[in-house]
Amino acid sequence: MSSDVTEVVPGVFRVADTCHVYVAAAPAQAGEERTGIAIDFGSGRVLDLLPEMGIDRLTHVLMTHHHRDQAQGLARAVGAGIPIHVPPVERDLFEKVGEMWAGRQISNDYDLRDDRFSLLDPVPVAGVVPEYRTATYGGVQVRVLPTPGHTPGSVTYVVGKAAFTGDLIYAPGKVWSLAATQWSYTENEGPAMVILSSELLQREELEVLLPSHGEPMTDPHDALRQLSQSMQRYVNFRRPHPWDVRGLLHNPFVEVTSHLLMNRSANSHSYVLLSDSGAAMVFDFGYDMSTGLVHNTSRAARRPWLASLPALREHYGVTSIEVALPTHYHDDHVAGMPLLRDVEGTQIWTPSHMAPILATPLHHDLPCQWFDPIPSDRVLELGETVRWREYEITVHDLPGHTLFAAAYEFQVDGHRVLVTGDQQDGMGIPGERQESLNFQYKNRFRIEDYRKSAALYRRLRPDLMVSGHWRPRWVDDDYLHMLTERGEELVALHYDLLPLDHLDLGADGVLCRLTPYYASVPAGGELVLTATVRNPFPDKVVATIEPVVPPGWQREQGSLTLRLPGGGMEQVHLRLGADVVPRRRVRLAVDVTIGDLRLGQHAEALVDVVGEGPR
Fold first, then answer.
1. How far apart, in whole angstroms, are the C-alpha atoms of residue 281 and residue 347?
2. Residue 422 · residue 401 · CB < 8 Å
3. Is the preceding peptide bond at 220 cis, omega within 30 degrees of 0?
4. Quick one: which of 164, 300, 147 has its CA closest to 228?
5. Rounded to whole angstroms, how far apart are CA atoms 380 and 5?
6. Could you report the per-residue pLDDT of 164-200, keeping only the tens digit for each?
7. What's the rounded Cα separation, in Å, for the pair 229 and 224?
8. Is the sign of the CA dihedral 88, 123, 163, 10 positive or negative?
9. Measured between alpha carbons, how far is 31 from 281 in angstroms, rounded to an integer?
10. Radius of gyration over alpha carbons of the chain, in Å?
11. Is the pTM of this model over 0.70?
């Protein structure tokens, strides 16, 4: 073999390139061609050096992360017909990287991630690798572990007892780039993730670490221990006070009661209800073991993982996480649920008004929706009481923070608990500090929502209320009275500030919505939009709906009319013909008049016209 190819462990070859490219040989079969898989791809010169390894062809390419030094030659893999598999978090930075280049903010930019160190052009991706699980690629068994740090979505591949660590570690106690770990101004998200990944990887039974840059490390535990310690010193140097990152990993849970735990490591607190059987139920599960969220909301900037689960098993004897219940649909409360289901077999039980939102993201124009559909394993009716293990849990409608939210009531350790999501902060102290009501207009907040939630709390009289971003709140009469007063004050403020005495525009002023809000249609195909129109007047009126489409689109001639009851709503369906030219985010609208109220182009929808098939 030339100096460019080294057999670093039996059956694993390293190719010197823009990064180390590794080839793991598949088990040989007598009389058949010799195959292998590549881990990372560099410039693609590995294809020229296969004969030196006794390899006839590569069956798969597995990427540890998206950086260009790992990936710039992937077009050669595509040309050779080799399937490419990438980390789930970073898929868009491979197959949709053109969209990143077209839309990435570069002026007044506070997002310091190295996402611009990505491919210049997109490549097709065969699939994403299954984190926390083992898959077989070309006869090679590969275990996939999330190891964020160098990038948010980085993974490590374990083959036998060798770990292909990408750029998590360069040498014992060292990284290839500190700059890559700085994801946003003044914060420590990346360095803290390096500590967590190093600690978690130490728990694996490994004999060698094979980095993308640097030499093999034959004492993995010591190399990772040194890195964790060194990076902890770096994190502490950049902060006004030390941050015990390892302590957070080793003990992320706070006992609210002996059978109810709060996950303090999550960006939005999730709560764990423990059964004496060893099973557990979680309320909300978004960004577990979070070290902070960067100033970007793309998929590649958001890292769901399951880093708190080892501590849950070790300290509390949990044998299974059977059910996950979301309080509302926001990403910081649900992003980790699909991974929890895939890895742990957890069922997702969802209230009936929330289930369609999770199942069809972007059908409605709502903020903070997760990128992928999250189908429900069980749909719960509002007001329904369900039994799980030794607990009875009642689902209550809880609009306010968002229209599509629920509270969960149950008894545990002699206390009546109400899980309230992000409804209010629970920090109010009569005579000292106001209670903050977390209403957001884009979430479909309605003026009387907090009046109604205060009435619910008075009716239920919980001993304890637990929320997403604040500490648990023990409840007394003074607190319930404060919530009642705040709800009434909120109603009064809106009546003082809005012309509600003669025109009911609602809290958000939206009288017409189009669904689906964001859709795709084949070039030249048909799209059906539904316009839902609300009457702001107390008396019945006629509404006129005029579709607004760009050149090249087809629509039915004339306006559509609706007879609206006083204060009521009606729907009308609009059949539109798409242009034959593919185009992203085509803007469609409706021009709306309700009675004598001329609203103009009041509601819009976005459509991708695609060359073939759905988006």
1. 10
2. yes
3. no
4. 147
5. 58
6. 999 999 999 999 999 999 999 888 899 999 999 999 9
7. 9
8. positive
9. 53
10. 27
11. yes
